[in-house]
Amino acid sequence: MLFIRRARVPVAVLASPPGKVDPFEPAALCDLTIEGDRITAVAASGASPAPSAATQFDAGGSLVFPGFVDAHTHLDKTHTWHRAPNHSLTFWEAIEVLHKDRVNWTEADIRRRAGFALRTAWANGTRAIRTHIDSSLPWAETSHATIAALRAEWKGRIELQSIPLVAGPCYETAEGEQFADIAVRYGATALGGFMQMTPTLPAQLDRLLALATERRVGIDLHVDENANPANEVLRLVAEAVLRHGFTFPVACGHCCTLAKQASARAQSTIALVREARIHIVSLPLCNLYLQDRRTAGTEFPRTPQWRGLTLVHDLLDAGVPVTCAGDNVRDAFHEFGDYDMLEVYQQSIRIAHLDARLADSIRVVTSTPADLMGLPHHGRIVPGARAHLVISSARRFSELLSRTSLPRRLVDGETVHATPPPDFAELAAVGL
Description:
The chain is an alpha/beta fold. It has two domains: about 1-65 and about 380-415, Urease, subunit C, domain 1; about 70-370, Metal-dependent hydrolases (TIM Barrel, Alpha-Beta Barrel), CATH 3.20.20. Helix content is about 30%, strand content about 20%. The chain has 14 helices and 16 strands. The protein has helices at about 90-100, 105-125, 140-155, 175-185, 200-215, 235-245, 265-275, 285-290, 310-315, 340-350, 360, 365-370, 395-400, 425-430, and strands spanning about 1-10, 25-35, 40-45, 55-60, 65, 70-75, 125-135, 160-165, 190-195, 220-225, 250-255, 280, 320-325, 390, 410, 415. The chain has a five-stranded parallel β-sheet with strand order 9-10-11-12-13. α5 crosses α6 (about 235-245) and α6 (about 235-245) runs parallel beside α7 (about 265-275). It is globular, with a radius of gyration of 21 Å.
């Protein structure tokens, strides 16, 4: 048994927040009891003595978070930048260079890179990850099998989910069913795709929803990752979900063009998204990196005039669940990143002005993505939740959001530890 004294817990992840909350420091001082791998009690600090059999740990008033949840990553692509760089730093070159790099995606290669990524995420306090997996032939089987093997290896430490990523038109062909079957055979949680605004998109979505219904899984899509207001894939997804009465979970990532559309049209789409119960996944760091680039040799480089963010506040105001996630890390879509959801949270606060709703903000990397992934015992500090905690060295949100690299300790079950992330030299040794 472990008893943690004086843990300053964000009110958004508590079952019963205190009645009066400081909007600038929305946390409550708590004592936590852990038995085995579960939190068994959460009480106001000092309200009751520590159990006599418990090992005690004094958090000293530091901010304590549930283990982070990263609901949108690309473990199959990660850490490939040095062999597949994106010279123009544009979206379409990223697709091209990674398509060429697939010849290197053997089981050993994916295991090395994705394994390094999981060790990094673990050291940074993430305890649940959803990865999209490129599912082109002939690589699909190897990629899904390798991620499934890693899922088994990390069981009990990181909940690892997988989603197939294919081009939308594939779902109009026999290959689409083949990809769906491969993904589900290796434990995919949902079917996914990179959907584009084409005349056949409604037919693609109809077929995708039929395949997902047959396999009793949800869908998790990449949509509208550009600045063209005429692209309304999100709207068409919502209409398709409603048209079919689809009852399984639906997520749409990016949704950048929503912010480029006329206000009335955007609000109309948001209303449909809410009615269809679609979960929005914003990827602030990657979209900050890619959006509003200019083509090399013409207008590039040029100061960006928009940052690729979807209408986060409008969606939240409408009651639509919004998650922030890490997306690509050190590959052609995003040269940077370190699987650190504390960084994603800090930057999301800055980029999206989530400090305007600070009390609820931590949900975007904890309870909201946990709900999307169907993990009710993750992302919260409540009795019955998994005992995965991140103890920050910051005592206040103003400190947490001021220093971008903060030491942290981790709690897993009844163990308190500080695990350093793996050294990049490991990847450099094999040319990555």
